[in-house]
């Protein structure tokens, strides 16, 4: 009995040490190149409407003899008409992703920060960075054209709620994970019954789709949902996003220079010139010592997936067994 008790204590201690190690990584989340302001998730930054350029003035011709009827000039939009983005042929997961990312595609403050960072590079490095940045912007701007509007405005809230609801009702695992992540990141309280959440996360881990691991990480990154007492040692901290994303890269997810992960990081945050997402993370996200810890966590996630040992991975740690006499 004493040996069994010591074994359980050792397992618990091991799990808590991993949790503490993981937690220490969160404070270094993507801060070397961008400063403390980037520690906040995109969705909770202050509202900033994306400026739009005025269109060309209407042509004036000498043959115009009468004005158009007053009723057709400056006709207001129908307030009861459905939002055009709700009819765009896009998955709820992709819609939520663009809402989360695209607000900064033409952000003036972000651009000033990026230009200040470029001054620290050599002239040759600046040229390479600007080429990569131009490529990423050319990729992002058409994707974000209709999705660059002020976060937390009434329209933004309505669209987010609608796409979350669509994602929750979807049969696609990626959509349902995106709904879980988005509702958690906006501050929704954790469900009273966490078992359906654990089952969803485990189904994604067993799906064979490495691209789902990023959505798992986003779900675990928010303290509203991903807390050690609810989802175990992998929950609760920004480190979860990068740990699970890196595990996805190891398992074959799209993480190269032309992947969404790398292009968005360049276009929206100015982190350019990386050949793949792991290179970006280990150079711009974590320090040398923390990189060793992170690599160990990623290896553990990959090993559990490959060996099919994901059952119970998101269970809270067991309560310690009290010993007789309080020892």
Query: What is the helix content?
Result: 40-55%
- Pick out the low-confidence regions: 1-17, 23-76
Query: How does the overall form come out from the CA principal axes?
Result: globular
Q: How far apart, in Å, are the first and last alpha carbons?
A: 14 Å
Domain count: 1
Which SSEs are present, and which pair or pack?
Blueprint lengths: L1 H25 L65 H10 L6 H11 L4 H22 L9 H15 L4 H13 L9 H11 L6 H10 L6 H4 L7 H12 L9 H10 L7 H8 L3 H19 L21
Helix pairs in contact: 1-13, 2-5, 2-6, 4-11, 5-6, 6-7, 6-8, 8-10, 10-13
Primary descriptors:
mainly alpha, 327 residues, 13 helices, disordered N terminus
Question: How would you describe this structure to a colleague?
Answer:
By secondary structure, this protein is mainly alpha-helical. The protein has one domain (13-35, 89-306). Helix content is 52%, strand content 0%. Residues 1-17 and 23-76 have low confidence and may be disordered.
Short description:
This protein is an all-alpha fold and 327 residues long.
């Amino acid at each position: 009995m004493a040996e069994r008790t010591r074994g359980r204590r050792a397992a618990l201690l091991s799990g808590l040490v991993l949790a503490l190690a993981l937690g220490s990584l969160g404070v270094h989340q993507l801060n070397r190149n961008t400063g403390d302001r980037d520690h906040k998730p995109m969705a909770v930054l202050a509202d900033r409407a994306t400026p739009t350029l005025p269109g060309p003035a209407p042509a004036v011709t000498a043959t115009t003899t009468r004005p158009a009827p007053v009723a057709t000039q400056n006709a207001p939009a129908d307030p009861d008409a459905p939002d055009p983005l709700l009819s765009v042929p896009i998955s709820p997961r992709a819609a939520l992703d663009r809402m989360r990312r695209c607000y900064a595609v033409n952000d003036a403050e972000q651009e000033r920060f990026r230009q200040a960072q470029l001054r620290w590079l050599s002239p040759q490095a600046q040229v390479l960075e600007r080429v990569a940045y131009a490529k990423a912007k050319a990729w992002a701007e058409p994707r974000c054209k209709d999705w660059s509007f002020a976060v937390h405005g009434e329209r933004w809230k309505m669209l987010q709620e609608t796409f979350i609801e669509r994602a929750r009702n979807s049969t696609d695992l990626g959509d349902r994970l995106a709904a879980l992540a988005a509702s958690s990141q906006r501050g929704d309280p954790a469900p009273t019954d966490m078992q359906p959440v654990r089952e969803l996360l485990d189904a994604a881990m067993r799906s064979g789709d490495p691209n789902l691991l990023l959505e798992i990480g986003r779900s675990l990154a928010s303290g509203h949902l991903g807390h050690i007492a609810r989802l175990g040692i992998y929950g609760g901290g920004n480190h979860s996003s990068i740990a699970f994303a890196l595990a996805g890269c190891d398992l074959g997810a799209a993480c190269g220079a032309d992947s969404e992960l790398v292009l968005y990081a360049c276009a929206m945050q100015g982190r350019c010139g990386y050949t793949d997402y792991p290179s970006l993370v280990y150079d711009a996200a974590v320090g040398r010592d923390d990189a060793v810890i992170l690599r160990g966590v990623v290896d553990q996630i990959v090993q559990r997936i490959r060996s099919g040992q994901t059952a119970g991975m998101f269970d809270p740690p067991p309560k310690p067994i009290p010993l007789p006499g309080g020892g």
